[in-house]
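User: Hey, my collaborator sent me this sequence without any context and asked if I could get a structure. I don't really work with proteins. Can you help?
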Amino acid sequence: MPATVFPAPSAIAAGFGDIARNGELVGPALITFGEALAATLIGAVIGIPAGIALARSPSFGRAYESWLGGSSPPRSCCSIVVPRRLPPLERDDYIMGAITAVLPIIIQTRTGMLLVPHVLNAVGRSFNATPRQAFWLIAFPAAVPAIVTGIRLALIYSLVKHDRLEFLIDFGGLGRVISDLYAQYDIPQMYAAS
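Assistant: No problem. I've predicted the 3D structure and written it out in structure-token form, which is a compact way to encode the shape of the chain:
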């Protein structure tokens, strides 16, 4: 493959060193990561209760499971362009990031709640646990690993979405740096920033 399309790994490593020395990498990367983290937190606040609600209503959950799976990232919500018309803390990309993040959290929370072992529920009933106690002491802790997996996926999808969005609108964090390097045709540094 020609070096103008994909440079040698040594050239990419040298480009990474150049970006790191110039200080063009840390600040924009923190901006992108901060936006993705905020969107993931918003997604978790909405997605965890929604996933629990879908798990508690089996017919409703089965009806919407395929819709959620079909609209989940990275196929959707990742390449929508938002105009630069609002201040950074009020921009629409936080909302789009939350939409991107909420879907895997809902799916994984519902899955985790449905896969709580029946033995644990039987133990709760044998100790006369109230429904509230059974939820907080048995079901929710058993679902936490699946919920954490959903949050991890949401953060990854949100990072990808923000990077793509910043690249397209040439505004913001790491995606803007990649866009600038692409416009300057500095391919080794562009790959290093990616």
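In plain terms: The first helix runs from residue 9 to 22. You can pass these tokens on to your collaborator as they are.
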